[in-house]
Amino acid sequence: MTLSRAFPAMLLLPVFLLLVGADEGSADEGSARDGGTTPGAEVALLDAGTPDASVAEVAEQVDAGVMLGLVPPVPVPSREQDPPFARLRSLSMKQDVLARAKKDAQGRLVVPGPQGNVPLTIDPTLQSQLTHILTDYEVPYGAVVVLEPSTGRVLAMAEHSQAQPGLRGLSTRAVFPAASIFKIVTGTALLEAGVTPMDETCFHGGKRRLSEKLLEDSARDGQCHSLAEAMGKSANVVFAKLTQRYLSPDALKRAAARFHFNREISFPVPTDVSLAAVPEDDEFRLAQTGAGFGDVYLSPLHGALLASVAANKGVWREPILFEPDPNAPLPAGEQVLSPEVARDLTTLLEATVTRGTARRTFRERGMGVPGAVGKTGTLADRKPFRDYSWFVGFAPKDNPKVAVAAVIVNEPLWRIRATWLGREAMRLGLARLPPGSLTPAREETTPAEETPAEEESSDEELPAEEVAGTPAAPTAPGAKAAMTGP
User: Fold this and answer.
1) Which of these, 304, 265, 15, lies nearest to 154 by C-alpha position?
2) Residues 339, 343, 344, 350, Cα dihedral to 10°
């Protein structure tokens, strides 16, 4: 057992007793909940209390141990030929801890245990608010996770499927293409390779599709983006060029493994392994993967944990669903990034909200979230058509209190998409905090002459979502039409 999973003994007993038999029938055809770890292998866990560790020191300590996640535990399905979403199956009631929870006299959500009710970390009000948004807008498939990044406590895991009523477990299923969310991993690897947030790359084309010619420097490269601008505007060709220029397959694999791709996530609810295939012998496919077009899949729970790494100055914390003893020490985290790289990664993510693909949604009047940072992602399957949209992020930037991940799978007609849902999760989550727990954040201002942000750019990605109505007043049944790229 790794140290990062060494929960206090008092927590393990109710979890174990509640989940005896949870593996029964939990592995869907094509899913990968079992990590296939080599017996005796352990991850090199770094001391979370060493915030001054350098990039080299962190890398050296990680490489000193046996790295899990460098090889997917099972074959990774092709997104284009065999999308795993087509094999989505529901969790059983026995497996779905949250579905079995009831409110106690104090208003907490609890599940029965051998020694009485065991309280969950879920905030019932926030859970209800987010569930109502998903149901009121009749999303075909949607899930949103909110957690406390400093502890890993899960505050909400709301989900709904209008297309498949009764479906359970969307929050922990890694059947959603990660799309441009994988740029978080690529961006981290580039930072570690010496690229700074302000370093510029010039390019042309590549808004929705990539070709090998676009990755060559050319006299036609009339536009330049810094790495921060490329993250904010999700510039595919920039990430592809930088991947080809600076990253080896091994570097990208190691970055993905440290973010716990191809590795199990310890959680009471059965959670799929988020699979990531990194090509070794095809430079163009490697570049495409770095830009977000690879065979990479992500669960909403894992998405919130990705955001938490940057929020925690590079520390990975396992998610917690059972309320811990307030007197028990916080379990040790796993330092997967140096604090310096985590700081620069936050700078990249901030650009998404201030001048990138999420700018319009986060500037809706009266609905802003000061200090929000994040990453959007959109991708579409053609036959049958599925529009996957993502948002992961945290807030406030300088005093992180909530980390969120939202994913929605829409049909050609849609009402809301994930960036809007993620913003609402942030806004409502922060509103649940006790008064005075937030340090006032500076309002970001943008010069009046600045041009509107570019739409999310990706092969088969869709334009940034239109601003939907408020949760209290869902849009009329005349749904918005999702537009596809050329």
Assistant:
1) 304
2) 160
Residue 448 Rama label (left phi>0; alpha psi -120 to 50; beta) = alpha
Give the pLDDT score at 439. Answer: 58
pLDDT tens digits, 52-104:
344 455 455 444 333 688 999 999 999 999 999 999 999 998 899 999 999 99
The arithmetic mean of pLDDT across residues 108-122, rounded, is 92
Model confidence pLDDT, tens digit, residues 206-230:
777 899 999 999 999 999 999 999 9
Quick one: DSSP state of residue 107? S
284 burial (CB, 10 Å; 0-12 / 13-18 / 19+) is middle
CA 361 from chain centre, in angstroms, equals 18
SS3 418: helix
CA distances from 68 to 257, 261, 460 (A): 7, 9, 32
Q: What is the pLDDT of residue 408?
A: 98
Comparing CA positions, the residue from 410, 184, 466 lying closest to residue 311 is 184
Per-residue burial over 440-451, b if 16 or more Cβ lie within 10 Å, else e, is: eeeebeeeeeee
Residue 248: name the closest of 310, 189, 331, 295 by CA.
189
Note whether 303 and 183 are within 8 A (CB): no
Contacts of 461 (CB under 8 A, 6+ apart): 179, 180, 208, 234, 377, 378, 379, 380, 485
pLDDT of residue 1: 40
Distance from C-alpha of 115 to C-alpha of 416, rounded to nearest angstrom: 43
Specify which residues 310 forms β-bridges with. Answer: none
Strands (E) across 48-127 are located at 102-103, 109-113, 116-119
Rounded CA gap, 49 and 45, in Å? 12
Helix (H) or strand (E) holding 306: helix 300-311
What's residue 254's pLDDT? Answer: 97
Model confidence at 305: pLDDT above 80: yes
Question: Is 479:416 a contact under the CB 8 Å cutoff?
Answer: no
pTM: 0.80
Hey, how many other C-beta atoms are within 10 angstroms of the C-beta on 478? 8
**How many beta carbons lie within 10 A of that of residue 54, not counting itself?**
12
Give the integer Cα–Cα distance in Å for 330 and 58. 21
